[in-house]
Amino acid sequence: MAEFKVLELRIGRAAPLGPAGALSAIDKHKVAGPLAAGRLGLDGDEQADRKHHGGPHKAIHAYSISHFATWASELPGHADRFRPGAFGENLVISGASETDLCLGDRWRIGSVLAEVSQGRQPCWKLNLRFDVADMARRVQDSGRTGWYFRVSEPGTMTAGDRGVLIERPHPGWTLARVSHLLYHDRMNRPALAALAALPGLPESWRHLADARLASGRTEDWSRRIETPHS
Fold first, then answer.
1. How many CA atoms lie within 13 A of 24 on its CB side?
2. d(CA 90, CA 40)
3. Are 30 and 9 in contact (CB under 8 A)?
4. List of residues 6+ apart from 150 with CB closer than 8 A
5. Is-contact 21 129, C-beta < 8 A?
């Protein structure tokens, strides 16, 4: 797989989400025409929680359209929610998913050179978005998380652009493999050490792998995936 297609570009502003009005920019609207993409993402896009979202390693979020039918079949009572933009993605992608992309992949999209930096670590705001109490855990367990690009060379992109693979430095590290390691084969020490040694890995992921190796334990996910009650 050396190519994918961008079906839609989406951006959004922070707004209240859920009954407690948690601030989130997950609701992103479709944009017609070209958009500039810089080191911090698409022009006009916003992240409400800069501590956990956004930044150079999470500049652009992508999600595969192939996942929506699977989600709808698994959660038929919420099927109408699984449509492009549902996961707060900036790029709606066809022709590629987490099994096809590798950490460090460099893709030319329009005039932008984008690098796959990490898979998404889902948070509790997905529970509110879909009105499913354990949606974040479902996303995590499934591996259908979407992924982030960092922008190596700024430029412009538009719906209909093809993503063309320029370089694949880590062919053994698909996003699906990383997800399986982080959330299922969690104390595979050789794999954790190999992940931590990958050039270009975001420091937060390197720290996660090193912490597991040092402690022999998996980190607590509850604050990330369970909806706060106060």
1. 20
2. 12
3. yes
4. 39, 56, 57, 58, 59, 114, 115, 117
5. no
Nearest to 202 by CA among 143, 154, 161, 149: 149
DSSP conformational letter for 102: B
H-type helices in 102-202, by residue range? Answer: 125-130, 135-142, 175-183, 189-196
Q: Which residues of the chain have pLDDT under 70?
A: 1, 48-54, 230
**Contact between residue 89 and residue 146 where contact means Cβ atoms under 8 Å apart:** yes
Instruction: Output the pLDDT for position 50.
Output: 59
Q: What is the pTM of this model?
A: 0.95
Q: How far apart are CA 195 and CA 176, in angstroms?
A: 13
Helix ranges, the chain (H): 67-74, 125-130, 135-142, 175-183, 189-196, 203-215, 222-225
What are the residues facing 115 on neighbouring strands?
Answer: 106, 150
Cα–Cα distance for residue pair 15/50, rounded to 1 Å: 14
CA distance linking residue 51 with residue 1, whole number of Å: 34
Specify whether the CB–CB gap between 90 and 62 falls below 8 A. Answer: yes
Closest C-alpha among 225, 230, 126, 131 to residue 183: 225
Ordered by where they begin, the domains of the chain are: 3-225 (2.40.33.20)
Task: Identify the residue whose tokens are 């956004």.
Answer: 54
Strands 106-109 and 112-119: antiparallel
Residue whose token pair is 């960092």: 150
Closest CA to 42 of 20, 71, 13: 13
Q: Which two tokens stand for residue 70?
A: 């699977």
